[in-house]
Amino acid sequence: MKARSIARELALLGVSQLTDNLSRRQTSISVAADYSKKQLDGLLLKALTALGADAKEGIETAEGELQRGERLILESETRTIDLKEARSRIQSSIPLTKTAINQVGEKLELLMFSQQTSKEMTAVRKSLESAAKSVEAADQLLREHQQKVADIETVRSQIQSAIITAKLTITKIKTTLEPEQLVALLSRDDIRGYACELLGNWISYQKAIDAQLNEAMEKWSIRRLARVDRDILRLAMIEIVYMDVPKKVAIDEAIEMAKRYSDEDGYRFINGVLRRTTDKL
Question: Is the pLDDT of residue 119 over 50?
Answer without folding.
Answer: yes
